[in-house]
Design a protein that fits this description.
The protein is built from seven helices and four strands. Helices cover about 50% and strands about 10% of the residues. The mean pLDDT is about 95. The chain folds into two domains: about 70 residues, Glutaredoxin, CATH 3.40.30.10; about 110 residues, Glutathione S-transferase Yfyf (Class Pi), Chain A, domain 2, CATH 1.20.1050.10. α4 runs antiparallel to α5. The protein is an alpha+beta fold. It has a four-stranded mixed β-sheet with strand order 2-1-3-4, with helices on one face. This is Glutathione S-transferase family protein. InterPro entries: Glutathione-S-Trfase_C-like, Glutathione-S-Trfase_C_sf, Glutathione_S-Trfase, Glutathione_S-Trfase_N, GST_C, Thioredoxin-like_sf.
Length: about 200
């Protein structure tokens, strides 16, 4: 029997959830270890010994080797699965969206959510660029999803996994999805494909 992987993450984090979703969807044996990020769990010596960067998610292999960064982890987990397109150009397009998600989506939508939802900051105290650039990201997704069912064509890929994590939580960051009518049906399609329930 294959030894399980160990996944460290905070269940309130979209970056952590996407790792759990892929492992569960693909039936990869794994053990989940909850890390309380707001409570300082990533700064505890035992965790820093595993990941000196002090970040989750973190994958620990049975031999003790580790892998960090959510999109690197899901790319490793999904190797050889249907979540990664076989065609080179489609695979590159998937990676394009995954890189974009960490550079132009998560830093605005997830960060604004964290400040409003967890830190309870007033909206007028936040950097207005968070709302502006988060809306830019949602508009770009809207334009893509007006033309296809998923971010890379007609089947779900890791690009959808990466992007759905915080898009479905966007309202907690003060983002209204109503102006982007293609997004809610897409969220439902991805949730159904992955076998996860709706975000409540």
């Amino acid at each position: 029997m294959t030894e399980p992987l160990t996944l460290y993450g905070d269940p309130g984090s979209g970056n952590c959830l996407k790792v759990k979703w892929v492992a569960d969807h693909l039936g990869i044996p794994s053990v989940w270890r909850t890390v309380d990020v707001p409570g300082g769990g990533t700064r505890e010596p035992a965790f820093l010994a595993l990941n000196p960067a002090g970040r989750v998610p973190l994958l620990v292999f049975p031999d003790g080797e580790t892998l960090s960064e959510s999109n690197a982890i899901i790319l490793h987990l999904a190797e050889g699965s249907g979540l990664i397109p076989e065609a080179a150009r489609a695979r590159a397009r998937m990676l394009q969206w995954m890189f974009w998600e960490q550079y132009s989506h998560e830093p605005y939508i997830a960060v604004r959510r964290y400040q409003l939802h967890y830190l309870k900051r007033a909206p007028d105290t936040l950097d207005p660029r968070l709302a502006e650039r988060g809306a830019d990201a949602l508009r770009l997704m809207q334009g893509t999803l007006e033309c296809s069912a998923f971010m890379v064509g007609d089947a779900p890929t890791l690009a959808d996994v990466a992007l759905v994590a915080y898009t479905r939580m966007a309202h907690e960051g003060g983002f209204d999805l109503a102006p982007y009518p293609a997004l809610r049906p897409w969220i439902t399609r991805v949730e159904t494909a992955l076998g996860i329930g709706p975000y409540v």
